[in-house]
Amino acid sequence: MNVYRLEAKTDMRRFISNLQVLARIPVSVAVAAISMLGYLLYSPEFSCALFAAGFGSFFLCAGCSALNQVQEKRTDGYFSRTMSRPLPQGYISSRTALMIAVLWIALAVSFYAMTLSSRTLLLTFMVLVIYNGLYTAMKRRTPFALLIGSVAGAMPPLMGWVAAGGSMFDPLILTNFIIWYLVQIPHAWLRIYEHKEEYLSRFSPIPVSYFVITHQKMLMRVWYFAYVCSVMLFALVCTRGLGVPSLVGTILGSVFLLGSMVPLTRLITVYLFDIASACLLMGAVIVQL
């Protein structure tokens, strides 16, 4: 009897572990936190709608991740970074994973509905179409698919802002959207570059197969300066109503510009831009209080 209980506990732990991988818990938690910061940027007060927006973003990210793993079950088995996922290993069937993905997306819609903002439902549909539709279909054909997929990656703060009742076309959230859009490209390209040999061996379209190293570094540096400009622009918009010079933007811009003198391979880690952008968004929330 004890053996059966032990096996049941082991199976349950394995299933929970597989769910965590399907949902990509660290990413989904980060998305939820950023979405809540976007909410607070428009409405700096704690409410049930704030947490509904956070849970909605968590389950939407988890659902999109699970659905993406169903779509890429075969190709995930080719790469060391993804071959240990539950679907390539056969721990979970595609049908079960698809049902879980649909359940999580349904939960996301339910939580977003609690915010009483119909525009969050429109953005949810857009995320699914862009990420699981266009981006997933294009990524095996062209490295420029990231230019499309990054739109979905930049959505979390916008989702929170809209859930709080803000306009999608407000200059403050649009400039922040640009920052998060620009974050996605170096983040993804740097992760791909770490495994470039595997991608090249599978004839996957990645930047290193399209551009020589010199051109790649130039593109990364151009993207870096675009990021710096977006940070300074956001700081200017954020502080325009305070009647003071944008000291925040000037300081941040100076730091980033000085940092650009350092070789990018030494300066940039995969999560540098994400951390910097999250800190910037948090600072903007504090400024708006």
Provide structural commentary.
The chain is built from 16 helices and no strands. The protein has 289 residues and is an all-alpha fold. It folds into two domains: 1-129, Tetracycline Repressor, domain 2 (Orthogonal Bundle); 169-289. Helix 3 runs antiparallel to helix 6 (94-114). The chain starts with a helix and ends with a helix. Residues 259-268 have low confidence and may be disordered. Keywords: Cell membrane, Heme biosynthesis, Membrane, Transferase, Transmembrane, Transmembrane helix. InterPro entries: Protohaem_IX_farnesylTrfase, UbiA_prenyltransferase, UbiA_sf. It is a multi-pass membrane protein.
CATH topology of the largest domain: Tetracycline Repressor, domain 2
**pLDDT under 50 segments (min length 5)?**
259-268
Structural class: mainly alpha
Largest sheet: none
Count structural domains.
2
- Quaternary class: single chain
Task: Name the CATH class of the largest domain.
Answer: Mainly Alpha
What's the helix count? 16
The strand count comes to: 0
Rg (CA only): 20 Å
What percent strand?
A: under 5%
Membrane topology: Multi-pass membrane protein
InterPro entries: Protohaem_IX_farnesylTrfase, UbiA_prenyltransferase, UbiA_sf
EC number: 2.5.1.141
GO cellular component, one term: membrane
